[in-house]
Specification:
This protein has about 190 residues and is of the alpha/beta class. It has helices at about 1-20, 45-55, 65-75, 80-90, 140-150, 170-185, 185-190; strands at about 25-35, 60, 95-105, 110-115, 125-130. A 5-stranded mixed beta sheet has the order 2-1-3-4-5, with helices on both faces.
Length: about 190
């Protein structure tokens, strides 16, 4: 009798484990953009940032429809904290996430971008931009901001100039790390 109960409990546990949605493995080259306020009004800026980031080869950005679907299932109301954002990014298999926040007053509109590592929830880089009130963000203003966000922590100029002449983000990151190592006379790291 005890063996029968034990077998029953094991089979039930296996079925329960199989039906649970497993989170995909985190991909360090996969990014998701999340609105800090969760407001639908930021979709235009989300799309601009997504387009600016997708110019780079070697990374992928989660489809906004897929992200919104997971957000609707997982997230409650209120502002998006880094803890909640990390949980969402994990569900989407994104090794990094960007929290996008827009604020405005009567004089200006401000955008804040914060890049985090999903696994550790560590803030990697942060960038800000401000425009006069009544002005909309455009690809011309978001593109250098995205480049600076992705490369700025490596010592790349804030304008996001592609120093290595490549559209490959991993190659550009390696080039920037090598240049920084040479600047510090760390020739072993520069190789």
């Amino acid at each position: 009798w005890s063996r029968m109960v034990s077998d029953f409990l094991k089979s039930r546990a296996l079925r329960a484990a199989a039906t649970r949605e497993a989170a995909p493995a985190l991909d360090a080259a996969r990014y998701v953009i999340l609105s800090a306020s969760g407001a639908k009004a930021h979709r235009f800026e989300d799309e601009l940032l997504r387009d600016a980031m997708q110019r780079w080869r070697g990374i992928s950005v989660v489809d906004p429809f897929q992200a919104r679907e997971v957000i609707a299932r997982v997230r409650g109301a209120g502002d998006m904290s880094p803890t909640v954002a990390s949980r969402l990014a994990t569900r989407l298999g994104a090794g990094r996430y960007v929290l996008l926040a827009l604020t405005s007053d009567r004089d200006s509109v401000r955008m804040r971008l914060a890049l985090y590592e999903t696994a550790s929830n560590h803030l990697v880089n942060e960038r800000h931009a401000a425009l006069p009130a009544g002005t909309a963000f455009s690809m011309e203003t978001v593109k250098p901001l995205a480049d600076s966000l992705l490369l700025g922590h490596l010592g790349v100029p804030p304008a996001g100039t592609r120093l290595g002449g490549t559209a490959s983000l991993p190659a550009q990151q390696a080039f920037a790390r090598g240049g920084a190592a040479i600047g510090e006379w760390d020739l072993a790291a520069a190789e």
